[in-house]
Amino acid sequence: MADLTQFGVPTNPGQANAMVMPKLQYRFRVNLLNFGSAAASVEVTQNVISVTRPSLTHDEVTLDAYNSRAYLAGKHTWEPVTLTLRDDINGTVTKSVAGQLQKQLNQGLQSAPASGAGYKFGMTIEQLDGGQPGNVVESWSLNGCFIQNANYGENNYATSDVMQITLQIRFDAADIHSSAVGTASTSGALTNAGAFSTKAITNVF
């Protein structure tokens, strides 16, 4: 067995400096809640290729003073996340995406829901520990999601790649949790049970 006790960054005298196991990018799971057809949610999870994690940006507020300037954090923006899916041979993923887009806008009737509660969904990105079944060590919950852009990829005679569907997902807010939590409401919102404190969330970013 490898001895990792000598490979960490030295800290205070007398304290161990063993390396800490990092989270690995490929140990994750994505769940979509109230997305398209609820019956297809498992198939969508099984066909995830990759997902970007949430990114937060604050506007900058400048306060001009006598000889200098000070800066404050203004309104914040959650950037859209990108979800890439395999397009399975049964068409389950395509149908689920189409069902969600139909919720957002009925193309045939050119009608849309009266409010976001009629089409928004919830999304969780769970970091797993690699066990079987995997234990959740961290979970992001994204609230008030909708598909901003859907790219169905291309057909190409010159490649052996699988067909992919790439979704840009816009959302209202995100929380980070120490374990898997969150249940979908009809508006696609997630419960906040188990979320870190506001101070902890501030430290994450």
Structural class: mainly beta
Strand percentage lies at 25-35%
Quick one: overall form? extended
* CATH 4th-level superfamily: Hcp1-like
Q: Report the CATH topology name.
A: Pnp Oxidase, Chain A
Gyration radius (Cα, Å) is: 21 Å
**Tell me about the biggest sheet?**
7 strands, antiparallel
Account of the 3D structure:
The chain has 3 helices and 9 strands. The protein has 205 residues and is mainly beta. It has one domain: Pnp Oxidase, Chain A, CATH 2.30.110.20. The strands form 2 sheets. Strands 1, 2, 5, 6, 7, 8 and 9 form a 7-stranded antiparallel beta sheet that branches. Strands 3-4 form a two-stranded antiparallel sheet. It is extended. Mean pLDDT is 84; it is low at 180-187 and 191-205.
